[in-house]
Amino acid sequence: MKMFDLSHKIVSDMPVYPGDRNVEILIEKSYEKDGYTLSSLISSMHAGTHIDTPSHLSESKLNMSDVDLVQCVGRGVLIDVRDRMLIELSDIQDADIREGDIVIFLSGWSKYYGKTLYNEHPALSEETADFLVDKRIKMIGLDMPSCDHYPYPIHKILMNSKILIAENLCNCESLLELNEFQLFAIPLKIEAEASLARIFAIGT
């Protein structure tokens, strides 16, 4: 049994989606001066490794605090789509995807994290999104900032079917060595349309 952390570290001034506020970790109290350490975090819920719920880009009112943790844990399926700029139906239709799975797309794009090119990422086709909806999966995970570009049609297809979207994963290449794995995407129980998350896999 092996464990793989797929989450970026949360630090001040970490990369954020264009237009979002910067992340700040403020040291409010220090052990040397105050006898204890206390920090505060100022961040969008879409910074670093995070999960989007349907209320982010659909008429749904489902916030992260409403999401059952059952939807955040499941059998993982890794789809290797490195060197693809458009992830098409032919890239996934032969994969062993079952109802309730969490599908991870390995684009290799995490190597550009923090660089301008990171936001010029691949995208899923509508046919691919429809296929995932038909499979009734729980969530997709991406080692890039989004599954699409403005006006975000793929987000809307998935979210209208209550499929969660985990973005900004890293270290997904390590999953290639596994025969099978369980994926754990653990968000804050926060009344918001998304949450920072610790995402990891356990497999053999």
Question: Could you explain how this protein is built, in words?
Answer:
- By secondary structure, the chain is mainly beta.
- The protein has a single domain (2-8, 45-203), classed as Putative cyclase (Glucose Oxidase, domain 1).
- It has helices spanning 31-34, 126-135, 153-159; strands at residues 2-5, 24-29, 38-42, 50-52, 73-80, 86-87, 102-106, 123-124, 139-142, 164-167, 181-187, 194-203.
- The radius of gyration is 17 Å and the shape is globular.
- The chain starts with a strand and ends with a strand.
- The mean pLDDT is 97.
Task: Describe this structure in a few short sentences.
The chain has 204 residues and is mainly beta. It is built from 3 helices and 12 strands. The protein has one domain (2-8, 45-203): Putative cyclase (Glucose Oxidase, domain 1, 3-Layer(bba) Sandwich), CATH 3.50.30.
